[in-house]
Amino acid sequence: MSTLEGKTALITGGATGIGAAIAHGLADLGCQVAITGRREEKLKETAEGTNFKYHACDVSDRESVEELFEWAAQELGPIDILVNSAGANIQKRRVSELDPDDWDKLIQINATGAYNCVHFVLPQMRERQDGVIINICSISGVRSNPLGGLAYNASKYAMRALGMTVGEEEHENKIRVTNIHPGEVETPILDDRPTPVTAEHRARILQPEDVAATAVMVACLPPRARVPELIITPTSASFI
What domains, with CATH codes, occur in the chain? Predict the structure, then answer.
């Protein structure tokens, strides 16, 4: 695998789960990494013992995201790799019990949050005619499953459309966009399941480092190659 020496990466949702695993994977190949999330204390904990830079941000708040990119310009310089990994779900997911405020929350975090970051990173990538954007979407963005719930599924379909459209519009500017669609992953989002997830189940599904490996592979591809979409599922899960 090629080195990422001299490259920079900004990772949303970088304090835990998939985002944190990707941060470590990119840093191991020499990339200068910055992580962001809503909880500064968790960011500090994740960054301890590393060279990660960190800055608290709510991706659903456009002004907060603008401040993040202003900070990143000072701390990182141009961003070569943007990873949209921030995401959320809720416990009451069925349409019959979904609170409209929870619908708004998931759309704003999972879909609008990714848009906000893409909006602020694109100008610098266009100027350099180079850049990689990786969206950690979901298999729920490929096919609706009641397990994900109405709002989550809709937000991930929106995130998928965002990535596909930006990828098609911007590839002539040599900006490559990849949607990664993981199946079940052992991350804190499982804590919001309507039914508790057993330790045995958590052990046999994907682990954050599995998804991170795919993201790092995408980031290491030469500029001539792009992967519009990639699906990764647990071996134990059916995909029919």
Answer: 8-231 (3.40.50.720)
CB-based contacts of 46-51 (< 8 A; 24+ apart in sequence): 46/14, 46/15, 46/16, 46/20, 50/23, 50/24, 51/27
157 in catalytic set: no
Q: Which residues face 36 on adjacent strands?
A: 12, 55
Distance, in Å, from the CA atom of 228 to the CA atom of 89, rounded to the nearest integer, reads 25
Choose the catalytic residue: 54, 115, 152, 157. 152
The three state secondary structure string of 46-107 is HHCCCCCEEEECCCCCHHHHHHHHHHHHHHCCCCCEEEECCCCCCCCCCCCCCCHHHHHHHH
100-152 pLDDT per residue, tens: 999 999 999 999 999 999 999 999 999 999 999 999 999 999 999 889 999 99
Q: Which residues contact 235 (CB under 8 A, 6 or more apart)?
A: none
* Residue 100 dihedral angles phi and psi, to the nearest 5°: -55, -30
Judge whether 37 and 19 are in contact, CB under 8 Å.
yes
The answer to whether the pTM exceeds 0.90 is yes
Q: Provide the 3-class DSSP secondary structure of residue 7.
A: coil
> Is 141:157 a contact under the CB 8 Å cutoff?
yes
